[in-house]
Amino acid sequence: MTHQQTQPQADIAVSSESLPEAFETILAEVSGAVGTITINRPDKRNALSRTVLAEIGRVLDAWEEDDDVSAVIFTGAGEKAFIAGADISQLAHYDLPYGLAAHMQRLYDRIQDYPKPTLAALNGVAMGGGLELAMSCDIRIAAEHARMGLPETTLGVLPGAGGTQRLSRLVGTGRAVEMILTSRILTAAEAERYGLVTTVVPAAELLPTAAATVGTILTKGPLAIRLAKMVIGQGAETDQRTGLLLERLAQTLLYTTEDKAEGATAFLDKRTPEFRGR
Q: Could you confirm whether 262 is annotated as catalytic?
């Protein structure tokens, strides 16, 4: 499969031909090999609903097999909210079977394991399920005015879409326990100090910075990127010795690829490599 190493543009408002359908709660657009999913419920502060989750899943299905999409950015419509959490009007109807079905948790697991790089551009508040979605992405960049937290205990529930697990892996157990038990909300600057986001930028620079970050990733070998994501993710779930074994096996596979030969040759020739994902 050939991967196009096209530099994405800051303007990301070009509709994807692979998604002819119109969506009720999201926008799905592609430009420069980068797909952008925008949660489009600004009147609800982009709150998550069952429809939102289903529509995100359909887009991920389409883009996973689309060679014209090499990475995915998530963001929210407007300037106030990335995702303000779950739609509380639906929370009252959640029951035991719904909890066991774990629709949101399963979707976020899929985002974490997605074969293409993912980035969350936090353009405003990211609460509850919104922060949990961001934590399932590979990279998080926040606007300066963004706020984020897991306030579910205020509602008598807990962060049930990966929050109890991913937060501690990103910021450490002590900080995760304090944040969840007190429902503490972090500023963007605090989140950056905690390691919850990697970069904080002015709001006007958020999407251009996200596009530039993804553009840099797409200049690298696509097989190396995919295996690096896999090894880092799986290695974090096991002991170091097993993680090192995964690293060694992944590197051995990469040694056999055309991309490795192209990368080394391009470096010696002092030119830009032309990776083909094989």
A: no
